[in-house]
Amino acid sequence: MLIGLCGGICSGKHSVAGYLIQHQNFRLLELKSSGSPHARQDYEVTNNAIDQASRLKFETAESLLEFATKRWQENWVTTHIWDAAALDRFLQRPFFLLVSVDAPVSLRWKRFAERYQKRQLEPPQLEEFVLWNDQQLYEKDIGRALLTDRAQVRLFNSSTSLDELHAALKTLNLADDQRLRPNWDQYFMELASLAAQRSNCMKRRVGCVLVRERRVISTGYNGTPRHLKNCNEGGCPRCNRGEGGGAGLSTCLCLHAEENALLEAGRERIREGAILYCDTCPCLTCTVKIAQVGISEVVYSQGYNMDSDSAAILEAAGIRLRQFSSPRNGLIYLEG
Ligand SMILES: [Zn+2]
Ligand SMILES: [Zn+2]
Ligand SMILES: [Zn+2]
């Protein structure tokens, strides 16, 4: 795999690269002449901790990417992705993961000042550092925020020592290749979450996907039936009253995501081996329908307020139930 690290001045991207090189058998890919508009300040004071033997240098981002493409099964890391056009090409490859590293600005200034002091240079004042940082991140068309914004994993490096950072990175295991390509559970659960986004129910957005032999049979989300006003346009008076949890459930006009997916598929197409993915654990009334149509397994991601009752019914009906949790992505705090 190839991990691209991006982030602001002294956020710790070189420390993360250093960890991958030392502990996870990665090697560093670099560009010879840096195209970064901010390279002068940012780069010179960093990156000396990584020894020369672990580095390979390239003329262009294209040749770097070509090199990694031919050897994608080995582990590579780069901190040299400077612009959005280059990033577009990297992100097209299935072995590439973009990771951003950020840290509180006060902490980054402290790290920066320490580096200057080590070289017996006068460190910049905090205000000067902040202005410089803003320019580097947000300058129109070339600011690094354009890159960090697209990261699949966003690390928040508030650790105060390298040991602490290393311990956190060890637990996280950035090199887990499930981050590159979702497994089947992840894939179908994300489709269920996508379906949930279409929901118009005022109570709660839920999405569901029915699958057999790794093929989608049907999808569903909750809301009022066909030809009725959408729930969020006042279609269901009960949902719009804003009462908590299961209050007035029997007067609700909204079909649940599971019901819609089951109705859409029909019993004929469900058959033995069908799996129901739902981002919320099915309620009791859905559970009995799930049992009746012959679903073999239910996978959900978030709990609901009647999980144990639903679990008991599913068990009695001989249907497997399991909770799925996806790998930690998005914003992750790196602390000891
Ligand atoms: Zn509703
Ligand atoms: Zn309702
Ligand atoms: Zn339900």
UniProtKB/TrEMBL annotation:
Membership in a protein family: Belongs to the cytidine and deoxycytidylate deaminase family.
SUPFAM superfamilies referenced in this protein's UniProt entry, alphabetically: Cytidine deaminase-like, P-loop containing nucleoside triphosphate hydrolases
Cofactor(s) this protein cannot do without: Zn(2+)
Protein name: dCMP deaminase
UniProt EC number: 3.5.4.12
PANTHER family: DEOXYCYTIDYLATE DEAMINASE, DEOXYCYTIDYLATE DEAMINASE-RELATED
Keyword list, A-Z: Hydrolase, Metal-binding, Nucleotide biosynthesis, Zinc
CMP/dCMP-type deaminase domain residues: 183-321
Coiled-coil segments: none
